[in-house]
Design brief:
alpha/beta; globular; binds guanosine-5'-diphosphate; six-stranded mixed β-sheet; binds magnesium ion; 6 helices
């Protein structure tokens, strides 16, 4: 069994936040199981997924939390944010509203977070739908720089930049704790 001899050096809790339907659950499915589904209900009820990666010769277990639909009712609770050392703020590049809502998500995250060193990454998902783009890369980059966030555009569908995004946030977290 693959996990049998694995010594885990660090467990990092990362929370996924952002409007409903931006692709949070599919990003997580792509990263943790290399799966993708067009059925957005496929992962409802899942609290978190884990995946272990090697960074700087250390086994780092990412424990990634998914809102599982709570974002529709603005019911993401403090328990969700508790202990998080990283957060991915996800918007859909084809939905301007989901990008405009990022400021509110950021405020909510900063209000709930008990960790002042939390590493935050802005993710513009659905980069495969470039012909329907409603948020320029420049706008997002500028926002990210102003707020001190890392930034990447991803496609859970095409598996573009998904692993690099998680690797970036995990590496940055690792550097703050080691
Ligand atoms: P969540 O509500 O943020 O968890 O969003 P979901 O992960 O459930 O995705 C919402 C919808 O967008 C589903 O129909 C997904 O198949 C679709 N979706 C997610 N990621 C992508 C992507 O990268 N590209 C495209 N074209 N569709 C995506
Ligand atoms: Mg979801």
């Amino acid at each position: 069994h693959g996990d049998f001899n694995q010594k885990i050096d660090y467990v990092f809790k990362i929370v996924l936040i952002g409007d409903s339907a931006v692709g949070k659950s599919q990003l997580l499915a792509r990263f943790s199981r290399n799966e993708f589904s067009l059925d957005s209900k496929a992962t409802i009820g899942v609290e978190f997924q884990t995946k272990t990666m090697v960074i700087d010769h250390k086994n780092i277990k990412a424990q990634i939390w998914d809102t599982a639909g709570q974002e529709r009712y603005r019911a993401v609770t403090s328990a969700y944010y508790r202990g998080a050392v990283g957060a991915m703020l996800v918007y859909d590049i084809t939905k301007r509203q989901s990008f405009d809502d990022i400021a509110r998500w950021l405020e909510e995250l900063r209000g709930h977070s008990d960790n002042t060193n939390i590493i935050i990454m802005l993710i513009g998902n659905k980069s495969d739908l470039d012909s329907q783009r409603d948020v320029t890369t420049e706008d997002a980059k500028e926002f990210a720089e102003r707020e001190g966030l890392y930034f990447m555009e991803t496609s859970a569908l095409e598996a573009t930049n998904v692993e690099p995004a998680f690797l970036t946030i995990l590496t940055q977290i690792y550097q703050t704790v080691s």
